[in-house]
């Protein structure tokens, strides 16, 4: 009658250091290393501190919050605010920025009739859009049976 | 591209499965269905506030329309009671749904879902989470606010799961407590992917391999990795035992009338589920998109960052737990009782079908059967204007007769006379057959099966035909014109064209005369003109009637005959119109034990049904309805009301008609306290109810 839920059996999360998974440490290390290499060419005096700072920043920014890395949350928050500003002022710089980021301002306003529209199969068929023929060859004559939306007006003979 | 198919699922009551075996069986059934999933799927549960306002409005309308003072008084009484219930409780309405993306026939899918979940499933569009336009707002926190005129529309926030803790799930935790928070919310269990078995095994095995390499090189302890390998192996074992591997994400939409309450509710939901899974409150464009989880939009179109969790079918089955939490459903129909556990009123309209829906009520004496029946008849009369005939052998019909000021027909061996020759059927053949059945009951033997008996049947039929043919129109034969038993015996004794036949006719006439005429034991009851008015008398509508047979209790034959004649008269009137009416027959076994009368009852049940007359058969034991021909009556009754059956539990275990009962159902039936019953409506569901009565009903029927 019960089930013991398991850990995420499809992802790897090897032990790292100081509570930080190995993956993130590795990523921070590579980013720091790359930065150090680049700075060694241009500004060798500050290459070591910059490399360390970048490594630390990478580790911090990849820390998960609510299942998302911090950088993504900050980015989404920024996009959200941009979206709201763009929706409020369609001619502002924010609107231009939103366009550049392919951020649709439709997301700021939800219409229940669109969001919760039933699937296509469940939409009632409007029979008045159909013409029915007794035989396939009648199709050429164009006089088929049609379903009318309302009763036709009576006409004097 | 495959289209979405959306299905609505009626929740059932998990109280009726709440044993170790019951819930295990439920989990097994759910997971068996989940194993067959091939494409995307989504399970939804909406919990919205509900009131009895619709019911109250219906009663108001009926109150205005009716010109019957008594009905109006009752309607006022019921309206007040529903208002009191409405004010004293916060009802919720729960509905479940399933969206599937595959190319199978939707009817076949609905059938499969229905048999797996053992509850009605229909293909239908999902209800909208909210109405009108909503706008995204970021202050004081990300939420959706109604755009334009709010018109009572709430604010919404959406939470999505991102991590599942290693904890134990069952059908009672963690999802049901969410539904018990008693505020409007919707829950979606999104299943964007189900791995096929080989892919699942490969995926899990590759993870094990990677961890083994890692563990081989690691120095010291890495308990998380060790645990992960153990979990992977357990998952592999479950997959190899037939489970599928699904990716799952849970989304919860929470509503409130103001932002402070919304914040509190979001916190309550997050705290309630924290030990099992973590929820993230969506923000920005993700919030707009997350609403798509409550529609028939594919997960790809919803397009949220992937935070799914892999679970096996047996785990996922427990996420369907909201299916077992039925709340206030329709308010259409009359109150049948209050759900035990959920404490919500259960209404049912058994008149939706063009025909009537018969009912069987069983229960031991003293467990509230008669009281519940009186309440039910009163409610149908007051709320729907449905009149009734109540036939009972104990004399307690007095209470309902007194309560309504109805004529109380007490049939007595001394004072009542019921002529078996009264015309009850429209054709001569049927009428003769009916009267012959009555004589068979009087004689205590069947007039068939042997040469002599066949001759007797023929002769009696001939005598009756001779008498009825004397009238130009059979349907105009009123009780005062109908031939008496003495006349039948006279005609019968003169029949036969050979001496041997003449002798048989005379013997049969003497036998009947000995019992039904002169100083025979039943002469005063049967020989003469009927002195109780069972006719329609030109009325368009017949008011409720109560027939009591307690003064015939000493003679079971008389009682059976009286039951039959009264039912025949009701049946005759039933043919005239299609006005709904209830014919409640208490202690129906007294009728069914006479083979000739049982045939009549079976036939009457069919006639009643087509003419919108509900037969409500009441007895103490279910077993009496399942033996021999009585079963035909039982099978014509889709509604079964079961009170305590301590002494007759074997039928619920052994009979195929109750194959849908599990051990918990049987345990409940065996231990039903007073005024509690199980309402089993074929193809609709099973309810464990308490016979809730209004103060007025309690005052009226207290003595029963």
List the helices and strands and how they pair.
The complex is a heterodimer of chains A (157) and B (704).
Chain A: E1 2-4, H1 22-42, H2 47-61, E2 64-65, E3 68-69, H3 70-88, H4 93-100, E4 109-111, H5 112-115, E5 131-132, E6 145-146
Antiparallel strand pairs in A: 2-3, 5-6
Chain B: E1 4-9, H1 20-35, E2 41-50, H2 53-65, H3 69-88, E3 91-101, H4 106-117, E4 121-123, E5 133-137, E6 143-146, E7 155-164, E8 168-170, H5 175-180, E9 185-195, H6 197-217, H7 223-240, E10 245-256, H8 259-273, E11 277-281, H9 284-290, H10 299-302, E12 309-312, H11 313-318, E13 334-339, E14 345-348, E15 359-362, H12 369-384, E16 387-392, H13 397-404, E17 408-410, H14 428-443, H15 451-469, H16 485-493, H17 499-516, H18 523-526, E18 545-548, H19 556-574, E19 581-585, H20 589-592, H21 595-610, E20 613-619, H22 630-635, E21 639-642, H23 650-654, H24 663-670, E22 676-681, E23 685-690, H25 695-701
Parallel strand pairs in B: 15-20, 15-21, 16-18, 16-19, 17-18, 19-20
Antiparallel strand pairs in B: 1-3, 1-4, 2-3, 2-9, 5-6, 7-10, 7-11, 9-10, 10-12, 13-14, 13-23, 21-22, 22-23
Helix pairs in contact in B: 1-4, 2-3, 3-12, 6-7, 14-15, 14-21, 15-16, 15-17, 16-17, 19-21
Describe what you observe in this structure.
The complex is a heterodimer of chains A (157) and B (704). With 157 residues, chain A is mostly helical. Chain A has five helices and six strands, in the order βααββααβαββ. Chain A has helices spanning 22-42, 47-61, 70-88, 93-100, 112-115; strands at 2-4, 64-65, 68-69, 109-111, 131-132, 145-146. In chain A, the strands form two sheets. In chain A, strands 2-3 form a two-stranded antiparallel ribbon. Chain A has a two-stranded antiparallel sheet with strand order 5-6. The longest helix of chain A is centred in the first third of the chain and has 21 residues, at 22-42. Chain B folds into four domains: 4-195 and 244-324, no CATH class; 197-243; 336-416 and 537-701, 3-Layer(aba) Sandwich (Rossmann fold), CATH 3.40.50; 431-516, no CATH class. Chain B is 42% helix and 20% strand. Chain B has 25 helices and 23 strands. In chain B, a hairpin with a 3-residue loop joins strand 22 (676-681) and strand 23. In chain B, helix 1 (20-35) runs antiparallel to helix 4. In chain B, 48% of the residues are buried. Classes of the chains: A mainly alpha (157), B alpha+beta (704). The interface between A and B is large, with 44 and 83 residues. Strand 1 of chain A pairs antiparallel with strand 8 of chain B, so a sheet runs across the interface.
